[in-house]
Amino acid sequence: MAESKLDLMKGTLDLMVLQTLAAMGSLHGYGIARRIEQVSADKVLLNQGTIYAALVRLQYRGWISAAWGTSAKNRRAKFYSITRNGRKQLAEDAAYWRRLSGVMGRVLAMQDEGAKL
Amino acid sequence: MKDRLREAISRLRAFFHKQPLDHELDAEMAAHLELAIEENLQRGLSPEEARRQALVSFGGVEQAKEKHRDARGLPALDVLMQDLRYTFRTLRRDRAFTLIAVLILGLGIGANVAVFSVVNTILLRPLPFHDPQQLTWLAGNNGVGGLSDVTYRVDVYEEFQRANHSFQDLTAFVPYYSLSETKLMGRGEPRPVSFVWVAGNFFETMGIRPAVGRLFMPEECVRGGRKAILLSYAFWRRQFAANPAIVGQAIQLDDESVTVVGVLPPTFDFGAVFAPGSKMDFFRPVFMDDIRTWGHMLSLVGRLKPGVTAAQAQAESKILLPQLKDSGNPYWSTDVQTTITGLKDHVSGKLRRSLVVLWCGVGLILLIVCVNLSNLLLARAATRSKEFAMRSALGAGRARLIRQLLTESLVLAGTGAALGLGFAFAITTYLAHQGSIALPLLDSVRVDGAALAWTLLVAVAAAVLFGLVPAFKVSGGNLQEALKDAGPGMSQGRKHERLRATLVISEVALACVLLIGAGLLLRSFLRVLDVDLGFQPSHAAAIRVDYDDDGKAAKRSAILQEILGRVGAIPGIEAAGISDMLPLDRNRSWDLRAKGKAFSKDVNDDAFVYIVTPGYFDAMGMHLREGRDFNWHDTDDREHVIIVNEAAARREWPGEDPIGRLAEGIGQKDTRVIGVISDVRESSLEDSSGPEVYVPATQGTPEGAELVVRTKLPPDVLASSVMSTLRSLNPGQPATEFRPIQQLVDRATSPRRFFVLLVASFAALGLILASLGIYGVISYSVTRQTQEIGIRMALGATAGKVQWGVIRNTLRLALLGIALGTAASFGVAKGIASLLFGTEPTDPPTFGAMILLLSAVALAAGYIPARRASRIDPMIALRSN
Predict the structure, then answer these.
(1) What are φ and ψ of residue B184, in 5° steps?
(2) Domain count, chain A
(3) Residue of A37, A56, A62 with shortest CB distance to B72
């Protein structure tokens, strides 16, 4: 069976967007979506359109800011960049994710030992 | 936290800027797609494929927009706005339904808010004094008996005030109010004014600050000091046009000059708290030394120390008062038995039960209103089932439908509440201006913040109550069946009808309880009106008379004889007499003992005293049982005589004939009983009369004079001739009006009348609502069965038979409801037994009459649709589908 794409868990998209903006600087919605797809090597099930809900949410929380600008190819688009508050939030969320994934890793590793008993 | 707040504000802003934000999103998404297509083209795809792939990876555009809107604005509010718009549209379309529903709700909620305002004012709201919970009422003789029993001597007041450890301070006032006995002179016509003598510390203890000027100084509270008065706010505005310059000026009261030292604040209304139904114009400090030897003169109010309860103060008084008594004063008698309660309890405690009953009654009304509304909504739902089936076929979830229906209920309840507030405002304003209802604090009744909160609570509760059942019923319907273009008569309709019948039965049961309760109270009220007062209030009126006798009995006798002679000669006046006090108005009592009976401190010797002229008994329509009336020869230098009532005769001369016996306690000398007169209800219609004694004005010293005339003419017709006669005898006679004696009786019965009126109007409302409910259900079932009835008539059923069938249906519902209601009424009647007068809680005539009334109204409500059913033309009925 072919491996299906990963469904995004709640809250993960927000974190991905913040990380992308932190790494890439100012970027428009399409750019962010493409970047996430590329980094995940197309393993994430992402309807690009849904990114706009995440963007407005982050904007309302003051973690990213937005302004209309012109792309490299001279096209008008709305560009997003991370704010100082956003970086703080990113640091917090990233730390949380690392801890969680570490714990999950250990929990899942435990299963093998259990089988030996 | 800050982030959340920022988000909320942004969302709120977005809620009001939907269009520009949508445009911006559209532009952004368009740019997104173009960027994607461009990149795909660069990867070498054909233009069509580039566009297709861009759209595929973007996903659903509309879903993305919807998600964006949810993240951006206030989705819950959006839904609410939608529901509201829809609600207003449907309600506007169904105007008759909306009108009736709002009117019914308005009446129900209005009654509830009005009663809540009254309950809140009298029962719940603290008294309008500083730290009111510290204020207590002290009642001598454990609160039993007339004013002279429950009041205190000056010595007792002063000693208790000095020796107690429970109170911050004790204060006092003289409850023998001077109502219109004094005249304000030097400002146009002499004007009768009312005032109260209070202890010097009265206002400080109550926590009242003057609005203008100051309170009494110590030197104004002792004999020989400067004469000072404090004006009530209302009197200040009325009499002195709210001129602050009056403070410091002297005004003339009769022949006395007194200085106005201040004006009390508008929040302080002595009458509302201590003397319901009367207004006090000003206050004077009482000189304790002046009244020290006058016996029971003071009502006491105490302010407890912080943390001390009334019960602790009571416990202290139980020990302290007997100690004080033993250490000196032999005249303490009943003062020792003191009951200390919260002032609030004293003011409104007696009304608690009545008010709670009123509150329950009005709650019952709201229940009936809700049941009625439920019923109307169900009827409406039956016609709307297709609409809801359609909406649910289009994807509306059940929760969404229920939400929509509850929104409709809330809008109805809200509109009804707004109307109800209008009603409540009108009712409370009316009540607040009814000076003649002797209920405490009633003139401060208003729809306040608490009442508004109560309105909101009642409206929401009602909306949920009447909206929930229909909402579940409608939204749970069978989609397919409803969508099929089936005519009425499906099982759905029948189920609805069963539910509606249940609702009607409960409605009738509730109305039945209300009616029987109101019936019992009404019968009690009629019994009270029927009480033998001992005098004839109709065709009698009283007017206050002023004269100057220099304190000499002989001169007084001459003046009174002259007044009565002249007034009695006016055509139309059948009898005239004077008493210093009138029954059900003011009272005072002195000791009355048969001569030779041993004096005992523990036996109550009190008797109510009236000082009267010859002719008074005839003018009042009282019956002399034995002996003779007073005459003008009973002068001060002859043997002093009295007339006693039957209660006094029974107490002092049990089993003997009192005529010719001697009595002690009335006046300085012994007095001889010359007559026995029938008992007069002196303080209340509902309590039996106490011992009463009459003293001739030619021998006693009257406190004021009320001229009572008996006439068949309306008193107003006589007013000018009587007044000119009085003026010719005494130019200083103040301009007062005739008071019909009936007015005294009316005031004494006013609290009961007030409650009966309210409960009876609730019952009437309940009756109307119940009949409306019956009419609705029967009428609906007739409409639904038009076809069936048509067939039956085509097959030969007579109009009478059809009519009887419908009426039988009605009767079944009504009788079931009445049976349930009657059973419940027995319980309720037991609960209100203490409010009844001369009526058993199971009074068969009341139960019978109310059941009959309810059945008749139910029958009438069912008769209209029954007649309609009998007139159905089979041809038309069968053709119509």
Answers:
(1) -85, 120
(2) 1
(3) A56
